[in-house]
Amino acid sequence: MIRRDAILFAGLGVLILALGMWLKVPTTIQLLVTALAYALIALGLNVQWGYAGLFNFGVMGFLMVGGAATTFISYPLNDAFWTSAGPFMLLKALIAAIFGGLLIWGVTRIPKKGNLSKLRGFLLVLAWGVAYVTYRSQIDPAAKLIETEAGFVGGLGLHAAFGWIVGGLAAGGVAYVIGKVCLGLRTDYLAIATIGVSEIIRALIKNMDWLTRGTLTVSPVPWPTPLPADVVASGMTDTYMATIVSRSIFLALTVLFIAVIFFFLQRAYEGPWGRMMRAIRDNHVAAGAIGKNVTKRELEIFVLGAILMGIGGAILTTYVQILDPSGYQPINHTFIVWVMIIVGGAGNNYGALFGGVFIYIVWTISEPASLVLFSLISDMSESAGIGAIPEIESRALQMRVFVLGMVITFALRFAPQGMIPERVRSEG
Amino acid sequence: MNELIFFLNKVIISGATLGSVYALGAVGVTLIFGILRFAHFAHGDMMTLGAFISFMLVGLFQAMGIQTPLPTGFIVLPFAMAITAGLALGIDKGFYEPLRAKGVKTVTLLIASIGVTLMMQGLIRLFAGTATRSFFENETKDLFRFKLPIEGVKRSINISEPQILVIVTTVVAVIVLHYFLTRTRLGKGMRAMADNPSLAQVSGINTAAVVRATWIIAGSLAAMAGTMLALDVILKPDLAFNIVLPIFAAAVVGGLGHSYGAIAGGFLIGFAETMAVFNWAVLLRPFKAGLPEWFPTDLSLVPTEYKLTVAFIILVVVLLFRPQGIFKGASS
Amino acid sequence: MSLLEVKDLHGGYGGAPILNGVNMSIDIEDIGVIVGPNGAGKSTTLKAIFGLLQVTDGSINLDGDEIASMMPDKLVPLGLSFVPQEFNVFTEMTVHENLEMGGYIRDDDLSDTLEYVYEMFPPLKEKQKQNAGELSGGQRQMVAMGRALMSEPKLLMLDEPSAGLSPRYMMEIFETVVNVNKSGVGILMVEQNARQALEFATKGFVLAGGKNRYTGTGRELLDDPEVARSFLGG
Question: For C156-172, what is the HEC assignment?
Answer without folding.
Answer: EEEECCCCCCCHHHHHH
